[in-house]
Amino acid sequence: MEKQIDILIVGAGISGLGVAAHLSKNCPNRKFEIIERRESFGGTWDFFKYPGIRSDSDMSTFGYRFKPWQKSNVLADGASIKGYLSEVIEEYKLKEKIKFQHRVLAANYDSVQKKWIVEIEDANQKKQTWVANFVVGCTGYYNYDQGFQPNFPNQEAFKGQIIHPQFWPENLDYAGKKVVIIGSGATAITLVPAMVKGGAGHVTMLQRSPTYIATVPSIDFVYEKMRKVLPEDLAYKLTRARNIGMQRGIYALAQKQPKILRKLLLKSVEMQLKGKVDMKHFTPTYNPWDQRLCVVPDGDLFKILRSGKASIATDQIDKFTETGIQLKSGEHIEADIIVSATGLEIQILGGIKATIDGKPMNTSQHMLYKGVMVSDVPNMAMIIGYINASWTLKVDVAADYICRLLNYMDKKGYDAVIPEGDATELMDDTVMGSLSSGYIARAAEVMPKQGKHAPWKVSNNYLADRKELKQAKFEDNVLKFEKRDADAARKPKLVS
Q: 10 Å Cβ neighbour count for 307?
C-alpha cells in the first residue's frame, strides 16, 4: 500500500497537536496527517501514570498561545493537561487527522522526487509506504520503550519491588509500605508527597547530590482576579507575559549573578524546613540553572519532610540488599518498594532510521537552523522545546515559522528546502545547551549540536526566538530552495 500525503507530523503529543493546530489555521491549502505509535494522544501526558504526575512549568506558558488555560492552578496534573489537549483536538477538528498505533520504521528522502518515502507499521502490524512532501518530528527527546536505568550493585538480591516511573504498574498497592525513591529531579520531588498522600507508610528520597528547588503557589490569585474583570483572552495574555518575563528574569539572574539567586533559593528552602531537616540535602555544589531548576507547588515537599512522613538521604549506593539499600556511609534504608527515578533514555525522532538517498543520517552531526530545521536535511523540521522555560513556548514560535516557510514555498513553487550547514560552526554542546544534568550529557550521541553563531546557535531564549522567527526572511545564504524536475519519472523507493 502506498499513500501520498503532503505533511507528515510524527507524534500526537503537545508538539504534534500544536503544529497541527497552527497548520489548520495558517496553511489551509496544505493537507497533513499525524501518526502516533500509541493508542491515544498526549505523549508524555498520556504515557506517564505515576502518582502526582504534573507539569513543572506554569500553565499560562505551558498552554498554547492560541488557547488560554482557563483555570487558576499554576501547575496542572497529567489528566488535566490531557483534557486540555482533547479540547484542542476537538476545536481544530484534528481527530480524523490522527492515525493511532502507527509507527515509523524508516524514512528515506528521495532527492529526485523531492519527497520522503516513509515505511510505517500500522495497527495490524502490516507495513505501509507513505510518500510525504515534508516531515515534522514531534516526538520529544526520550525513548518510550525504556527509561535510563543504572545497574545497581547486587540489585537482584532485593526481595521487594523495583519500579521505574516510566512503567508504573497499574493499581500498585503501596499502602503502609516503606518506599525508597532514588533520584532528585522533577519526578522524585513529585512522587514523594504524592505517595505519602496516597497512603505509603514512609517514603525516603535518596539522592546522590542535592537539587535547587523553588516553591511556587498552586493557585495564581492575580490571574483569578483578572479573569473576573477582564476579557478571558486579555487576562491570559497578561498573565502569560508576566510569567515569561519572570522566567527570563530568573534565568538571566542565574547567568549574571548566580550567588544572589543561590542565596535567595536556599533561604526560601531554609524558611520552609523550619529547622526540621538538614539544609545539606538542599545545598547543591553547582550554580542555579547549571542544571534544571525544579519547582514544588505550595512547598508540598517541604511540608511532608517536616511532618516526618518522608525523609531525605544524600549518599551513594553501596549495594542493594534483600530488605533495602546499603549506603556507602554505612546506613541501611529499609524498603518494600524501590522507585528508580533515575531519568530518561534520550532518543531523537522517536528512533526512526532516517536516510537521505540511502545514506544514514546521524542526527548528532547536524545542527538546527534557527532552532527549527535540521542542517543539510531537506524538508524536515524538528520541535525541541526550551530547557529553561515551558516546552510549548517553542512549539508556538516554531510552528508559526514552519507555516510561513511552507506558504513562501507554495507562493514561489518550490518543492524542497535545505538549510545548508557549515561544519566549522559545529560545537560539542547539543541544542539543549550546556546544562550538566545526566540526561543532557547522555544526549550528546543523538541530539543535534549547537552552533557557534546564528542561525545555528540555539539561544533557549523565547523572547529572542519570537522576534527572530517572526521577522525571519527566507532569502538568505543558508536556505537552498529546489523545484522538482518535471521529467523525473523514477518511482521513489524506500531505502532501508
A: 11
User: How big is the CA angle at 306 (ends 301 and 312), to the nearest 5 degrees?
Assistant: 65
What pLDDT digit, counting tens, does each position of 384-429 carry? 998 888 999 999 999 999 999 999 999 999 999 999 999 999 998 8
Residue that the C-alpha cell 495574555 belongs to: 237
pLDDT the model gives residue 175: 97
Q: What is the 3-state secondary structure (H, E, C) of the chain?
A: CEEEEEEEEECCCHHHHHHHHHHHHHCCCCCEEEEECCCCCCCHHHHCCCCCCECCCCHHHHCCCCCCCCCCECCCEHHHHHHHHHHHHHHCCCHHHEEECCEEEEEEEECCCCEEEEEEECCCCCEEEEEEEEEEECCCCEEEEEECCCCCCCHHHCCCEEECHHHCCCCCCCECCEEEEECCCHHHHHHHHHHHHCCECEEEEEECCCCCEEEECCECHHHHHHHHHCCHHHHHHHHHHHHHHHHHHHHHHHHHCHHHHHHHHHHHHHHHHCCCCCHHHHCCCCCCCCCCCEEEECCHHHHHHHHCCEEEEECCEEEEECCEEEECCCCEEECCEEEECCCEEECCHHHCEEEECCEECCHHHCEEECCCEECCCCCEEECCCCCCCCHHHHHHHHHHHHHHHHHHHHHHCCCEEEECCCHHHEEEEECCECCCCHHHHHHHHCCCEEECCCCCCCCCCHHHHHHHHHHCCCCCCCEEEECCCCCCCCCCCCCC
Residue 345 corresponds to which amino acid?
Answer: E
Question: Checking DSSP bridges between strand 103-110 and strand 115-121, what pairing results, if any?
Answer: antiparallel
Q: Residue 490, class by beta-carbon neighbours within 10 Å (0-12 exposed, 13-18 middle, 19+ buried)?
A: exposed
156 Cβ contact list (under 8 Å, min separation 6): 320
What's the pTM value of the predicted model, to 2 decimals? Answer: 0.92
pLDDT given at position 496: 41
Task: Please confirm whether the linkage preceding 455 is cis (ω < 30° from 0).
Answer: yes
Of 304, 279, 276, residue with least CA distance to 188 = 304
Bridge-based pairing state of the strands 324-327 and 332-334: antiparallel
Per the CB < 8 A criterion, the answer to whether 44 and 13 are in contact is: yes
Per-residue pLDDT reduced to its tens digit, 122-174 = 999 999 999 999 999 999 877 777 777 788 999 999 999 999 999 999 989 99
